[in-house]
Amino acid sequence: AFFANKVEHESRHCNGKGLQRQGSSSFDRVYTANQNCGHAYPTFLAVLWCAGLLCSQVPAAFAGLMYLFVRQKYFVGYLGERTQSTPGYLFGKRIILFLFLMSVAGILNYYLIFFFGSDFEIHIKTITSAISPLLLIP
């Protein structure tokens, strides 16, 4: 809602009427940042749900909150110079990778239980809980 509100505000500020795609460079930056965030959101939701369901809910929820904060930082950085959005983008990629690896670990644990009867769920939860605070390091 924040991103869409910024696009609408910038559109009205530049053109005076409803949402227009042609406008100033500030409108183009806001619109592009909003589109980038919208395109990344389905991937984020998929890996967040998979990590939470298949591995551990608490580290997945923590990583999800961090991702939302990072996307906000990316969006605000994109409003200035495009190079200001790079740290938010790279940080977001690292969080998505963490969630993806959590999902893979959960799937591997399921197959280890199914084929070999070995359950490593406690070890995986301990590792992900220990690694998740490292996401705070830029």
Automatic annotation (TrEMBL):
Its main location: endoplasmic reticulum. The keyword Isomerase does not apply. The keyword Membrane applies. InterPro entries: 5_LipOase_AP, MAPEG, MAPEG-like_dom_sf, Membr-assoc_MAPEG. Keywords: Endoplasmic reticulum, Leukotriene biosynthesis, Membrane, Nucleus, Transmembrane, Transmembrane helix. GO terms for biological process: leukotriene biosynthetic process. It is found in: Endoplasmic reticulum membrane; Nucleus membrane. GO terms for molecular function: enzyme activator activity; glutathione peroxidase activity; glutathione transferase activity; leukotriene-C4 synthase activity. One of its GO terms (cellular component) is endoplasmic reticulum membrane. Pfam families: MAPEG. The chain crosses the membrane at residues 46-70, 91-113. It is a multi-pass membrane protein. Homotrimer. Interacts with LTC4S and ALOX5. Required for leukotriene biosynthesis by ALOX5 (5-lipoxygenase). Anchors ALOX5 to the membrane. Binds arachidonic acid, and could play an essential role in the transfer of arachidonic acid to ALOX5. Binds to MK-886, a compound that blocks the biosynthesis of leukotrienes. This is Arachidonate 5-lipoxygenase-activating protein. It comes from Alaudala cheleensis. The gene is Alox5ap.
